[in-house]
Write the structure tokens for this entry.
Amino acid sequence: MKFTRREILKLSSAAALSPACLLAQDEEPGLTQLSGIRLEPFVDPLPVPRIVKPVSGAAGSQHYRITLSEFRQKVHRDLPPTILWGFNGAMPGPTITANRGQTVTIDWVNNLPLRHRLAVDHNLDGAGKNVPEVRSVIHLHGGHVASSSDGNPEDWISPGHTQHTVYPNNQPAATLWYHDHAMGITRLNAIMGLAGFYIIRDPEEDRLRLPSSPYDIPLVIQDRIFDARGQLAYPVGPMSDSPWVPEFFGTTILVNGRVSPFLDVEPRRYRFRFLNASNARVYQLSLVPGQPLVQIGTDGGLLSAPAQRRALLLVPGERVDAVIDFSGREGRHITLMNNARAPYPSGGGLIPRLVMQFRVRRPLTSPLDSSEVPPRLAQVTPLREEMAVKTRRLTLQEDPAANGRLLLNGLRYMDPVTEDPVNGSIEIWEIANTTIDTHPIHLHAVHFQLLDRRRFDVARQRRTSEIVFTRRAIPAPPEEQGWKDIVLCPPAHVTRIIVPFHGEPGRFVWHCHMLEHEDNEMMRPFLLRP
Ligand code: C2O
Ligand code: CU
């Protein structure tokens, strides 16, 4: 039987209603059902992940020991605690903070159970019956690290083992995050909760007087489905022996692990570090009643200048750093709304809209808000096309041979390496999206700049594999003129990025950050050559 990606998606949402797909192994079978349950929004206060303390450390380096395990945690006032996976007993995990230039070493202790809570698809590469069902490997997303500490998908460990990583933090202040990356089950480990923030600070940023702690708050946005007992549900596909579904779209939004929470704020400026850690959902976030968000940073750190925005678009894996000014808004309730279609940009899936609410009902703790958003933030020197020594054209495409699977450049993960940049060189990657959906493309080990996006004739490309542009190129807008590690690649466009490859030579990966795609061949190795 053959299904298209959209067909599987439709059939699988129906399948989600059957108890078979529900995460409730220790519950009575048959009693659970998919949550059509309406959860009251804005009844839980926003949790802020605590900052984890190093177990040892001198001036030059800090050592952490962080344990992955299963536990129960409340996600909403009206739900019993949910079975989750996380770090040091919390989902999201605790925030790691690092200073630029100061080495951090971490022991990631895998204390997870031996059986997965969600249906593993053993047909996927690297997730066969010959490997342990539960595996994990932690990747520092946005970190410039050596291959051996990168959390390569094949470097997983099973429960009872420990992964050791070294993070040199030789990069500007930025909002990074850590998450699981195990081959073939990343999407399932992510739903269970294996993610947390990793924030790098540096003196240049500290000098700017941007809103700082406690007015600097990370916000991780994730979508989920809960059954009536408060347990996670993840759909399965229509074919019984291959549960993989092409995308996961939840019906409920969590911020920092709580369903649509609220935050009481003072009438002053706040800095929010938004992270979209959802499997496949794109968010378009705006404030109601309307008020601008001032974007100051992106994946790799601060922008050169602040960008006024009415809405923030966040693809899976992406970070946006933004300042919201609540001064003069005393007494107001301001709601953060999502408005993005799923799949983005043209799908007809359900859109959970209520992300969280800000309530301006706390008095100013100091008489004056002395923070500011200066007109110049950081030095971001644009790379010029002439600096590139090589241009690669890479396609995002459906695999004609398999149900709903997507490929990079027509190749599978296990095919020999084709992207092999030389360390110290600059390349242009032209990513041609021949599918009908947006894909967020992420490169490990580096940051890059967006050059432009340009529409092309997809039908013609399919026939002749030739790219014929039908519009003018759209240069990177101000909010994307910074250092990126993930880029939105819209359908029927060539997205061009310019990438300085420098670091420690070795094997890394580049992939789509829609985790269902990543788990099913939309990921490729790349080799950083000496
Ligand atoms: Cu955030 Cu390769 O991943
Ligand atoms: Cu994708």
